[in-house]
Amino acid sequence: MTAAHLTLPRIEISGPILTENTRALSKLCSEQGVAVVGVTKGLAGHPEAVRAMLSAGLPALADARLANIRRMRAAGINAPVQLLRPPMPDELPEAVRLCDTFFATAPETLEALAHAARTAGREADVVLMVDLGDLREGAPPAELPAIAAHADKLDGLRIVGLGTNFACHLGLLPNHENLGLFISTAEEIETRIGRKMEILSAGNSAALPFLQSGALPRRINQFRLGESLLLGHDAVEHRPLPGTRPDCFTLSVGILEIWTRGTVSAPSRTQTALGDDLLELSQGTRRLALLGIGAMDTDITGLTPLASGLRIIGHSSDHTVLDITERPDLQVADVVRFSFTYSALARSMASRNSILLHTGDIKPENQKRAPAYDL
Hints:
Largest sheet: 8 strands, mixed
Number of helices: 10
Structural class: alpha/beta
Oligomer: single chain
Distance between the termini: 30 Å
Order of helices and strands: EHEHEHEHEHEHEHEHEHEEEEEEHE
CATH architecture of the domain at 15-231: Alpha-Beta Barrel
CATH superfamily of the domain at 15-231: Alanine racemase
Low-confidence stretches: 366-375
Strand content: 15-25%
């Protein structure tokens, strides 16, 4: 806790920890022949944070949002970039200019991408996605070889790989059966197009426990990692990963008001303004602090106070209420610090109008602009 006056909440980033995490996981994966692509959407493409990841030797970056990639390119980041989400029709001209590899599967999308690439006078590399049961994106395994054969004939496209996702939508985890199906689908596609694929990208941070088990098929050669690099844990059980640290990011928020109030048990209570269920309140007289951050800024449920004796008891779109009864030392304008879940971090980094990025040992992206950082 420090007594300080903040105009806006702050995200504090440690560049050395981010580099250290990236280097540790790159080493963990490379020992099994897997290259790490750094997913930057949790950073909202912040250039200096991305550079901290790249300093660990990543071969490529990946993001789902073209705005983040535009931001990186404008800052002079020239590393190869994968566009994880299929481009929307009105994004295609800019996408083929800014991105190197595309994750797309629907024939209509592939045809539009091929046309945009030809118009731009280039060839777009494509990783086709196979849906192994998470039901988020990609074609069923039985349909994908025919799609690949069609796409391989389109001028402007080059089929370079096969990808899949785990635990993004329905929580599907990798196992021997679905990864075996992934490999056999890749082999069938290779037979149809007459060449080996360069990339077999079998997952994200949720696949790391399977890699650690030593059971990952040898042909898999790429993981797309975001949460694990930023927070130092796997995305399934949130267990610490070797050589990483969890404290790369913290959120600091100044206290706006403090009031001592008595809690009331009332039968007329309903859901919150956001439609959430109500928390059980500690009965009696409580000391409550009002914070200037809410659901429009981050995932409040993904914040955990770093100091003892503090408890979030509710939030609205613009405010969060903290029970500080056990901390009589806290006063208005004192700073409370929080750790993040991945959801809270990603939403906070995207809250560019309401959260000041204070990068600590990473220099600010635009030091002359205040209070919010500029995209």
